[in-house]
Amino acid sequence: MEIKTTTVDWSKSEIMERARQLGYKYEQESHYCPQATLAALLDVFHIKDDNIFRASFGLHGGGGDSGDGTCGSLVGGSIMISYFFGRSRTEFDLRIENRHATGMVKRLHEYFEEEYNGIRCRDVHRKVFGREFNAWDEKELQIFLDMGGHTKKCPEVVSKGAAWAAGIIWDELHREDRIKRVRIK
After folding, report:
1. Long-range contacts, 85-88 (Cβ 8 Å, 24+)
2. What is the pLDDT of residue 182?
């Protein structure tokens, strides 16, 4: 891929590919799926926000490595979509809904549902590894690692989640009616 200093003029496929590459790399090197997904998306869209990054930390492994909650890559992508298009505190206080942003997160949810037959960490593990893991059991954790947990399997999940989220964000940023509103102001 050609090296560029900004992603403003990148095509959707370029944005998605860069998010995919970074998501894979970050999960492989630093682990923690929501942060790896967010790091990729923050970098692709040139956003520096350590607070949102730090706030996502405990949501890895289905939340506290429980396996029972939402896949961390789906969480990271949902956070980034919400960062761009979510409801503000003022809108919250005024009880203003935001079905549009909710629909974008639902679209990301549907990608995970279709690819992994579910959205929970353990659903993804069953599809990718053929089994679930108890990350709090050292023997189970070692099996996860031996099966490529952080070298191939989870990096692949994160790469897909980051790419899907980047594509959804790109589509919204490039919607014709959004572009016209921005130009009018």
Report:
1. 85/172
2. 47
Q: pLDDT tens digit string along 103-155?
A: 999 999 999 999 999 999 999 999 999 999 999 999 999 999 999 999 999 99
Tokens of residue 126, six digits = 């069953």
C-alpha torsion sign, points 133, 112, 174, 20 = positive
**CA–CA dist 168, 103 (Å, integer):** 10
Query: Mind spelling out the 3-state secondary structure of the chain?
Result: CCCCCCCCCCCHHHHHHHHHHHHHHHHHHHCCHHHHHHHHHHHHCCCCCHHHHHHCHHHHHHCCCCCCCECHHHHHHHHHHHHHHCCCHHHHHCCCCCHHHHHHHHHHHHHHHHHHCCCEHHHHHHHHHCCCCCCCCHHHHHHHHHCCHHHHHHHHHHHHHHHHHHHHHHHHHCCHHHHHHHHHC
